[in-house]
Amino acid sequence: MEDLKLIIMxxxxxxxxxxxxxxxxxxxxxFKTIRFSNGEGKANVDSTIRGKxxxxxxxxxxxxxxxxxxxxxxxxxxxxxxxxxxRVIASMSGQAKELTVxxxxxxxxxxxxxxxxxxxxxxxxxxxLENLGVDRIxxxxxxxxxxxxxxxxxxxxxxxxxxxxxxxIIKNENIDDLLVISPDQGAxxxxxxxxxxxxxxxxxxxxxxxxSRVVNGKNPIIEHVYMGPxxxxxxxxVVDDMIASGGSMxxxxxxxxxxxxNEVILVSTFSLFTEGINKFDVANxxxxxxxxxxTNLTYIPDDCKEREWLKVVDCSNKLSTIIKTIHExxxxxxxxxxxxELDELLEKxxxxxxxLSL
Length: 358
Known about the structure:
The protein is an alpha/beta fold.
């Protein structure tokens, strides 16, 4: 694949190195992002990319990357990471044959609807990338894929890590008497992916918010109301795209346990723990949930990964396959709908041992 070139931003190096191992070291592009002492930056691409199919991979949520400004360490924000993506694109001066930006966690995707007197930054960012000559956006579990309406003529590919997460759950957890729960109306489609594969029932929580107040950028939740089959004695999987502070998911876990649920497994593609991970330690000890399954598609500090209740699923092979398939102009349908391996795992897991004949 000599025409394939990968630019792995520093914020995605851990996963990116595995992708390079999968696709070949000759795919790697040498580049630098540089910071001046006042915080301004620039980018320089050292490798030849003229006429190549270039993929830029970035984790805009990686707050573990720092730079010096006026002699003080500054953590990089999503805004900083997105600006570096644009710098790298600009440094290539339109030389790439095709240019794809891979952002597993799509920049500014949490604000996905236009409201009066509010900005819609995700749409603005997508338009910026289009104007810079980007041909394709690849993302994972976009909060609302309809934001792609901002770029109707640009390729926008949204994939889910459902299969990768379910493989680990099926291997390691009790999937008998199972029920899959959506923590709110917005997660229904994600929940359906799980229920279709597992062939189990589903339930949903409805959120009632206080629209008169805004706390940390959102209206606080007043009440969760459950609608669905009884949860008593069931093993539960709660599915969402993101854990931010985690208050909503922990509240759902608490209510499920109060209603007699057995094991409660929380699943999120991106686990940010924006108010710290200690509140999850406390909640786990209190029995509000049993496990959290998440991916390595955004930054999780090493000390957080040591928690026994946190299971981080490696999705580097998934991204490698996506990139290889698109680069070779093959159908991506099997990547979105393939479930043969999962069906085999489920059959093996659910198969009852044969009775011994006397």
